[in-house]
Protein backbone atom coordinates (compact mmCIF):
# COMPACT_ATOMS: atom_id res chain seq x y z
CA UNK A 1 0.00 0.00 0.00
CA UNK A 2 1.67 3.28 -1.01
CA UNK A 3 1.71 5.95 1.67
CA UNK A 4 -0.83 8.74 1.09
CA UNK A 5 2.06 11.14 1.72
CA UNK A 6 4.16 9.66 -1.11
CA UNK A 7 3.16 12.23 -3.70
CA UNK A 8 3.18 15.25 -1.43
CA UNK A 9 6.16 17.54 -1.81
CA UNK A 10 6.48 20.08 0.99
CA UNK A 11 7.46 23.52 -0.26
CA UNK A 12 8.15 25.06 3.13
CA UNK A 13 11.62 26.15 2.06
CA UNK A 14 10.33 27.94 -1.00
CA UNK A 15 7.45 29.92 0.44
CA UNK A 16 7.71 33.03 2.59
CA UNK A 17 8.85 32.17 6.09
CA UNK A 18 7.18 32.81 9.42
CA UNK A 19 9.70 35.39 10.61
CA UNK A 20 9.18 37.56 7.53
CA UNK A 21 5.45 37.51 8.12
CA UNK A 22 5.86 38.21 11.84
CA UNK A 23 8.07 41.15 11.00
CA UNK A 24 5.47 42.46 8.57
CA UNK A 25 2.83 42.30 11.32
CA UNK A 26 5.30 43.47 13.97
CA UNK A 27 4.20 40.68 16.30
CA UNK A 28 5.04 37.09 17.16
CA UNK A 29 2.49 34.36 16.38
CA UNK A 30 1.29 32.48 19.48
CA UNK A 31 -1.66 30.41 20.60
CA UNK A 32 -3.48 31.53 23.74
CA UNK A 33 -5.26 28.35 24.79
CA UNK A 34 -8.14 28.95 27.19
CA UNK A 35 -9.23 25.79 28.99
CA UNK A 36 -12.00 25.53 31.57
CA UNK A 37 -15.54 24.40 32.28
CA UNK A 38 -18.49 25.52 30.21
CA UNK A 39 -19.53 28.89 31.61
CA UNK A 40 -16.14 29.56 33.23
CA UNK A 41 -15.67 32.64 31.03
CA UNK A 42 -13.48 31.55 28.11
CA UNK A 43 -15.53 33.20 25.37
CA UNK A 44 -16.12 36.36 27.39
CA UNK A 45 -12.41 36.75 28.12
CA UNK A 46 -11.46 35.91 24.53
CA UNK A 47 -13.68 38.70 23.19
CA UNK A 48 -12.33 41.28 25.61
CA UNK A 49 -8.75 40.11 25.19
CA UNK A 50 -9.06 40.27 21.41
CA UNK A 51 -10.36 43.85 21.59
CA UNK A 52 -7.58 44.86 24.00
CA UNK A 53 -4.91 43.35 21.72
CA UNK A 54 -6.49 44.89 18.61
CA UNK A 55 -6.42 48.31 20.26
CA UNK A 56 -2.69 47.78 20.84
CA UNK A 57 -2.18 46.89 17.17
CA UNK A 58 -2.09 43.08 17.32
CA UNK A 59 -3.80 40.83 14.76
CA UNK A 60 -5.67 37.92 16.33
CA UNK A 61 -8.16 35.20 15.46
CA UNK A 62 -10.57 33.75 18.01
CA UNK A 63 -11.27 30.05 17.51
CA UNK A 64 -14.26 28.67 19.36
CA UNK A 65 -17.11 26.22 19.08
CA UNK A 66 -19.10 28.62 16.94
CA UNK A 67 -16.62 28.80 14.09
CA UNK A 68 -15.13 25.31 14.46
CA UNK A 69 -17.89 22.91 15.46
CA UNK A 70 -20.34 24.42 12.96
CA UNK A 71 -17.78 24.32 10.16
CA UNK A 72 -14.67 22.21 9.76
CA UNK A 73 -15.60 19.94 12.69
CA UNK A 74 -19.34 19.63 12.03
CA UNK A 75 -18.95 15.87 11.66
CA UNK A 76 -17.67 15.41 15.22
CA UNK A 77 -19.54 14.69 18.46
CA UNK A 78 -18.46 14.41 22.08
CA UNK A 79 -17.18 10.85 22.40
CA UNK A 80 -13.57 10.53 23.59
CA UNK A 81 -12.40 9.85 20.03
CA UNK A 82 -14.26 12.84 18.63
CA UNK A 83 -13.08 15.17 21.41
CA UNK A 84 -9.48 14.24 20.54
CA UNK A 85 -10.05 14.72 16.82
CA UNK A 86 -11.77 18.05 17.50
CA UNK A 87 -8.76 19.34 19.41
CA UNK A 88 -6.25 17.81 16.99
CA UNK A 89 -7.75 19.71 14.06
CA UNK A 90 -8.01 22.91 16.10
CA UNK A 91 -4.34 22.62 17.05
CA UNK A 92 -3.34 22.08 13.40
CA UNK A 93 -5.39 25.09 12.31
CA UNK A 94 -3.84 27.19 15.08
CA UNK A 95 -0.39 26.18 13.88
CA UNK A 96 -1.18 27.51 10.40
CA UNK A 97 -2.19 30.84 11.92
CA UNK A 98 0.96 30.95 14.06
CA UNK A 99 3.09 30.26 11.00
CA UNK A 100 1.44 33.28 9.46
CA UNK A 101 2.35 35.41 12.48
CA UNK A 102 -1.19 35.60 13.81
CA UNK A 103 -2.15 35.18 17.47
CA UNK A 104 -5.03 32.76 17.98
CA UNK A 105 -7.20 32.84 21.07
CA UNK A 106 -8.74 29.41 21.49
CA UNK A 107 -11.82 28.80 23.64
CA UNK A 108 -12.26 25.09 24.13
CA UNK A 109 -13.11 23.19 27.29
CA UNK A 110 -10.29 20.76 26.44
CA UNK A 111 -11.10 18.75 29.55
CA UNK A 112 -8.20 16.34 29.99
CA UNK A 113 -4.46 16.64 30.40
CA UNK A 114 -4.00 14.24 27.45
CA UNK A 115 -5.99 16.47 25.14
CA UNK A 116 -4.17 19.64 26.22
CA UNK A 117 -0.82 17.86 25.93
CA UNK A 118 -1.65 16.80 22.37
CA UNK A 119 -2.45 20.41 21.46
CA UNK A 120 0.81 21.58 23.07
CA UNK A 121 2.80 18.95 21.13
CA UNK A 122 1.24 19.87 17.79
CA UNK A 123 1.63 23.62 18.27
CA UNK A 124 4.99 23.45 20.05
CA UNK A 125 5.45 24.47 23.65
CA UNK A 126 7.17 27.77 22.86
CA UNK A 127 4.11 28.93 20.95
CA UNK A 128 1.54 27.64 23.42
CA UNK A 129 0.25 29.84 26.23
CA UNK A 130 -2.05 27.79 28.42
CA UNK A 131 -4.63 29.68 30.45
CA UNK A 132 -6.85 27.99 33.02
CA UNK A 133 -10.09 29.95 33.10
CA UNK A 134 -11.35 28.81 36.44
CA UNK A 135 -14.61 29.24 38.28
CA UNK A 136 -16.08 26.60 40.60
CA UNK A 137 -18.56 24.22 39.01
CA UNK A 138 -21.25 25.70 41.30
CA UNK A 139 -20.63 29.19 39.85
CA UNK A 140 -20.63 27.92 36.25
CA UNK A 141 -23.83 26.05 36.94
CA UNK A 142 -25.47 29.12 38.48
CA UNK A 143 -24.43 31.21 35.46
CA UNK A 144 -25.73 28.49 33.12
CA UNK A 145 -25.17 30.82 30.18
CA UNK A 146 -26.59 28.48 27.57
CA UNK A 147 -28.90 26.44 29.79
CA UNK A 148 -26.67 23.42 29.22
CA UNK A 149 -26.13 22.55 32.89
CA UNK A 150 -29.86 22.26 33.61
CA UNK A 151 -30.27 20.13 30.51
CA UNK A 152 -27.33 17.95 31.59
CA UNK A 153 -28.80 17.60 35.11
CA UNK A 154 -32.09 16.51 33.54
CA UNK A 155 -30.16 13.84 31.64
CA UNK A 156 -30.79 15.46 28.27
CA UNK A 157 -27.09 15.83 27.43
CA UNK A 158 -24.82 12.85 27.78
CA UNK A 159 -21.11 13.23 28.64
CA UNK A 160 -21.38 16.83 29.82
CA UNK A 161 -18.08 18.08 31.23
CA UNK A 162 -18.20 18.64 34.98
CA UNK A 163 -21.43 16.65 35.39
CA UNK A 164 -21.11 13.30 33.65
CA UNK A 165 -17.71 13.69 32.03
CA UNK A 166 -14.50 14.63 33.85
CA UNK A 167 -12.61 17.91 33.82
CA UNK A 168 -9.01 17.40 34.95
CA UNK A 169 -7.31 20.32 36.64
CA UNK A 170 -4.67 21.64 34.21
CA UNK A 171 -1.12 20.98 35.40
CA UNK A 172 1.03 22.91 32.92
CA UNK A 173 -0.55 26.32 32.85
CA UNK A 174 1.09 29.66 32.25
CA UNK A 175 -1.63 31.47 34.15
CA UNK A 176 -4.86 30.85 36.05
CA UNK A 177 -7.73 33.32 35.93
CA UNK A 178 -10.36 33.07 38.67
CA UNK A 179 -13.39 34.57 37.00
CA UNK A 180 -15.50 34.19 40.15
CA UNK A 181 -13.13 36.39 42.12
CA UNK A 182 -12.29 39.22 39.75
CA UNK A 183 -13.80 41.37 37.02
CA UNK A 184 -13.42 40.80 33.30
CA UNK A 185 -11.28 43.96 33.10
CA UNK A 186 -8.87 42.75 35.80
CA UNK A 187 -8.72 39.33 34.15
CA UNK A 188 -7.75 40.87 30.82
CA UNK A 189 -5.05 42.98 32.51
CA UNK A 190 -3.66 39.84 34.15
CA UNK A 191 -3.67 38.04 30.78
CA UNK A 192 -1.94 40.91 29.00
CA UNK A 193 0.93 40.85 31.50
CA UNK A 194 1.70 37.26 30.50
CA UNK A 195 0.89 37.52 26.79
CA UNK A 196 2.42 40.85 25.75
CA UNK A 197 6.06 39.93 26.45
CA UNK A 198 5.61 36.83 24.27
CA UNK A 199 4.02 38.50 21.25
CA UNK A 200 6.03 41.69 21.06
CA UNK A 201 8.81 41.92 18.47
CA UNK A 202 12.33 42.92 19.38
P1 LIG B 1 -17.39 29.73 28.40
O1 LIG B 1 -16.96 30.30 27.08
O2 LIG B 1 -16.21 29.35 29.27
O3 LIG B 1 -18.39 28.64 28.27
P2 LIG B 1 -18.83 32.19 28.68
O4 LIG B 1 -17.81 33.27 28.46
O5 LIG B 1 -19.74 31.84 27.54
O6 LIG B 1 -18.09 30.89 29.23
O7 LIG B 1 -19.74 32.56 29.92
C1 LIG B 1 -19.22 33.08 31.13
C2 LIG B 1 -20.32 33.89 31.83
O8 LIG B 1 -19.80 34.36 33.07
C3 LIG B 1 -20.73 35.11 31.01
O9 LIG B 1 -22.12 35.30 31.15
C4 LIG B 1 -19.96 36.26 31.71
O10 LIG B 1 -20.63 37.48 31.58
C5 LIG B 1 -19.94 35.78 33.16
N1 LIG B 1 -18.80 36.31 33.96
C6 LIG B 1 -18.93 36.88 35.18
N2 LIG B 1 -17.72 37.29 35.65
C7 LIG B 1 -16.82 36.97 34.70
C8 LIG B 1 -15.40 37.14 34.59
N3 LIG B 1 -14.68 37.73 35.55
N4 LIG B 1 -14.77 36.68 33.48
C9 LIG B 1 -15.49 36.07 32.50
N5 LIG B 1 -16.83 35.89 32.54
C10 LIG B 1 -17.50 36.33 33.62
Give the secondary structure arrangement, pairings included:
Blueprint: H1 18-25, E1 31-35, H2 42-55, E2 60-64, H3 65-72, H4 80-99, E3 103-107, H5 113-123, E4 128-134, H6 137-143, H7 148-153, E5 175-178, H8 184-199
Parallel strand pairs: 1-3, 1-4, 2-3, 4-5
The structure holds adenosine-5'-diphosphate.
Characterise this structure:
With 202 residues, the chain is of the alpha/beta class. It has one domain: P-loop containing nucleotide triphosphate hydrolases (Rossmann fold, 3-Layer(aba) Sandwich). The chain contains eight helices and five strands. It has helices spanning 18-25, 42-55, 65-72, 80-99, 113-123, 137-143, 148-153, 184-199; strands spanning 31-35, 60-64, 103-107, 128-134, 175-178. It has a five-stranded parallel sheet with strand order 2-3-1-4-5, with helices on both faces. The termini are far apart. The mean pLDDT is 94. The structure holds adenosine-5'-diphosphate. Residues 36, 38-45, 107, 133, 143, 145, 179, 182-184, 187 line the site of adenosine-5'-diphosphate.
Number of extended strands: 5
Ligand inventory: adenosine-5'-diphosphate
What proportion of the residues is helical, as a percent range? Answer: 40-55%
Topology pattern, helix = H, strand = E: HEHEHHEHEHHEH
Main sheet specs:
5 strands, parallel
